[in-house]
Amino acid sequence: MILYGKAVADAMNGKLAEDASALAEKGVVPTLAIVRVGERDDDIAYERGAVKRCESVGIQVERFLLPLDAAEDEILAVIDRINGDVRIHGCLLFRPLPKGIDETKVCNALSPEKDIDGISELSLAGVFSGSGKGYPPCTAQACIELLKHYGIELSGKDAVVVGRSLVIGKPVAMMLLAENATVTTCHSKTPELAAKCRKADVLIVAAGRAGLIGNEGIGPNTTVIDVGINVDGDGRLCGDVDSADAELAASYSPVPGGVGSVTTSVLCSHVIDAAWKSLARGSGKPEV
Fold first, then answer.
1. Where are the domains of the chain?
2. Mean pLDDT value across residues 87-98
3. Whole-number mean pLDDT of the chain?
4. Structural class in CATH, domain 152-257
5. Which is the CATH superfamily of the domain at 9-122+261-283?
6. Going by C-beta distance under 8 Å and a sequence separation of 6 or more, which residues neighbour residue 71?
7. Is 1 within 8 Å of 254 (Cβ atoms)?
8. What is the reported pTM?
């Protein structure tokens, strides 16, 4: 079975549009701030897709575009402005930031209530503690949404995560634990990596190395979620799992067309959730 992301995104988008409409009836327009420093092609491409998805479900977008040579204080001033603007419910900050900028300082300056992509230490602490405060990184949650949509059982299953970044690897491992999976975290330097992967019921690969996992690492009963985005020698997009070998799995998500298709819908869901919570705080009612 091929786990296409479009079906997941379509299912999410209908509910998101309904929620955005319900907010509009209460006088609230869910709004996302996008902060981009410089003109990286990959940032612009993702921004274009995010804006299109937001507009399709009723989310307003405000862009804050800074030059590549922007000073750290300028970026912090933009973050401070977003924190103080009650009309803005979430912020997407493109990273990596240019050299010379303290990225950790900038990320932690963002209010946790508006950190809809889980970039601050407080948001990640919420993911690791299971407190429910803050939002997980969108791509990490997209993996879970994809699995749930296709009815892939997680409770009691053996899950292997290849990758240990704070963007995907570590948070998705914690989210799998929250679903009662037994999780093993591996990486490119793990001994006998293929053998460990082959035993997994669910394998999530997010190491950023094209073709890292081949047929020796894929079991016939394994569900493979490929999060890698790489470019092969022919200039085509490819994942961390060899595309031909991925077909040996019981089910797998393709690259492109898998997790990436779901990520922007998760982003939108966080913005709308943040808007509901902002409305609740403003009315003095408990957060929903």
1. 9-122+261-283, 152-257
2. 96
3. 94
4. alpha beta
5. Leucine Dehydrogenase, chain A, domain 1 (3.40.50.10860)
6. none
7. no
8. 0.93
